[in-house]
Amino acid sequence: MRWTTFLAAALLATPALAQSDDAVAPRDHYAASQMASMRAMNICSGLWHGGLDLATIERELNGRDASFGVLADQGGTGIDHQARMVSTRYTDGMPPRVVVWRPVLGCIQLPPGAGPDAAEYLPRLPGDFAAPNLDDRAWPTGDRDALRPLTGDRAARLDSLVAQAFDGQTFGGRTWGVVIVHRGYIVAERYAEGFNRHTASQTHSAAKSFAATLVGIAQGQGIVAVEDDHLLGQWRSPGDPRAGISLGNLLHMASGLNTRGMAPPRFMDAYTQGTAVPEAVAGNFLAARPGSEFVYSPADTMLVMRALREALNDDARYLRFPYEELFWRIGMTRTSMNVDGQGNVFGSGQSWSTARDFARFGLLYLHDGVWNGERVLPAGWVDYATTPAPAQPAEGPGYGAQFWLYGPQHGLPEGSFTPSGGQGQYAMAIPSADLVVVRRGTDLGPGFDIARFSAQVLAALQD
């Protein structure tokens, strides 16, 4: 079970928070704090990174379905546009949950009990470290000449399919963006009301593929290697069996750590309670031999990014690394990877990106890690990331190194792969067809059938 499914079930099972005219009645403080943080994060990121208006944020991110109204305003939400701060009340006797936007880094939450004054201690980058404006450059780094629309029957077939992706019935889910890239150029693109090509929204677990890519870059620079173990200072005490967990084990979701579901330590506390990553996940114990068992867990990816931080041993470089070494090199200037209050990049989620940036990311992998003639990823990394890991999921798509793997059994050519994030975030790469199918959504329930949609896109492109 993926964490978004588990979280949805847990939240839907939580009794509605009682309201009064002037306060929130004390109930389950843990759940109330969690919901308040999620609401504040959506508003903060949606406003100041995504460029969404409040109406779209409330409709698409904070509970656009009546049965999932858990992120509604329960006790008062304050938005300070000057300080780029959102506060959400959730119970009597405690300060509101506070989330603060930082340039480049995105929105960072304070832990429960911390007042707005604590924001001064949150991580920040120097003021002159800003995303370059590459929009006027030629596609794919920029937006110029990105579109090469089809003509004739192929255009009609593809336009019909893209329209069906938005109807909520044919392929399921609730779609806000589709970008189809064939032979290097965009041949179809469409957005729902409130979104456009420069709108960023939650990637959810698709961020895991970004994290793996950063590891690939770092391996190419000799900073880490997937065979490395003794990754964290917390695991290096003599006799600690966790020292045997390798970076490859973490990338393959096979750390062996006790990370099933919401078992303590709770990785969700890092997402929604302001708990630092080392406190939330690094203190876990082994439940299986490293490498022996696939257990999908955001905790493993958080530990990947923590291991990269310790290997770099330079916190300023670590915070700049995703942008200098990956995103800005390939034109993903509207993508961010959020950090916790101690400057740990989550990597497992809490990332925001546009549909076009997803397309750029897919193209990087489609072209074996080479961008405009420059090698970004070391030779062999794409093969590593998209080769089935030794331990595999019991059902569904296969798993590589933070990528989901598809093939003929899913109606797609052998060697197809994609990042995959909750609520339907995909950049399906089909190397044999020189095709990237991006679909972004705000799904609930069964979600969007990316394999069937991608297969039909591929068929529509045939002469």
What key phrases describe this protein's structure?
hydrolase; 17 strands; 2 domains; globular; Serine hydrolase; 5-stranded antiparallel beta sheet; 4-stranded antiparallel beta sheet; Beta-lactamase; 13 helices; disordered N terminus; alpha+beta; hydrolase activity; 463 residues
Oligomer: single chain
* Overall number of structural domains: 2
CATH architecture of the largest domain: 3-Layer(aba) Sandwich
Give the spatial strand order of the biggest sheet.
Answer: 6-5-17-16-15
Distance between the termini: 40 Å
User: What Rg, in angstroms, do the CA atoms define?
Assistant: 21 Å
CATH topology of the largest domain: Beta-lactamase
Query: What is the CATH H-level superfamily of the largest domain?
Result: DD-peptidase/beta-lactamase superfamily
What structural class should be given to the helix and strand makeup?
alpha+beta
Order of helices and strands: HHHEEEEHEEEHHHHHHEEHEEHEEEEEEH
InterPro entries: Beta-lactam-related, Beta-lactam/transpept-like, Diverse_Enzym_Activities
GO molecular function: hydrolase activity
Protein name: Serine hydrolase
Signal peptide: 1-18
